[in-house]
Amino acid sequence: MQNNWIDISIAVMEDVTKWPTDPNFELKNFAAFEWGHPCDASMVSMSVHTGTHIDAPAHFINGADRIGKWSPEITIGPCRVVNIDHPGYITREELIELNIQAGERILFKTQNSATDWWHHPFNPEFVHFSEDAAAYIAEVKPACIGIDYVSVGGPENGPEVHRHILGAGVWIIESINLNHVEAGEYELIFMPVNLAMAEGAPGRALLRKI
Ligand SMILES: [Zn+2]
């Protein structure tokens, strides 16, 4: 059977690139063959914002929807991958040219995708939304947006950018690997682990050309 799904998820491992102040990812066994147990079984300790994950509105909006309010149409269905040329920011000007529609799913491929950044130390210069561009996303209200780095906002504007986007009820997929994905029309599947009471959740993200 032909498998034409493209996995755009980052492998979650100890040294994966994450927001610098988030706790380290840890995976440890509580049962193990080598300790004489009949199975291997492990537990994890991590920020729900490590690796490919979604931000629910509650991440920056007190009292807003948590992961339990996720519904399939937010992150499953037709999706557009678009190129962003600006080397520093996603700007309102570039977004206007893209003619983003309400309810659309749209993933932004920036210069971040020029390297396998998830194997490298956090780069504070990563391409991210300007506050003005985030305000534009809030105006046009796509169902979800995605970005090819650990956050939609940079060190200088992270809270403001998140508040604009999440405040409009737009969910955000972060830390996706678009290195081998061309701009175009796709089918997207992203399903967050149902950490119902959390403000974010890791998941697996797949694209298929349509
Ligand atoms: Zn996040």
CATH superfamily: Putative cyclase
Characterize the quaternary organization of these chains.
Answer: single chain
Number of strands: 12
Overall geometry:
globular
Please mark out the parts with pLDDT under 50 across 5 or more consecutive residues, or reply none: none
Question: What's this entry about, in short?
Answer:
The chain is of the alpha/beta class. Helix content is 15%, strand content 29%.
Characterise this structure.
With 210 residues, the chain is α/β, with parallel strands linked by helices. The chain has one domain (6-209): Glucose Oxidase, domain 1 (3-Layer(bba) Sandwich). It is 15% helix and 29% strand. The protein contains 4 helices and 12 strands, in the order ββββαββαββαβαβββ. It has helices at 72-75, 92-98, 131-140, 158-167, and strands at 6-7, 26-31, 41-45, 53-55, 76-83, 89-90, 105-109, 128-129, 144-147, 171-174, 184-192, 200-209. Strands 4-10-9-7-5-11-12 form a 7-stranded mixed beta barrel. α2 runs parallel beside α3 (131-140) and α3 (131-140) runs parallel beside α4. The longest helix is centred in the middle third of the chain and has 10 residues, at 131-140. The protein is globular. It binds zinc ion. Residues 49, 53, 55, 174, 200 line the site of zinc ion.
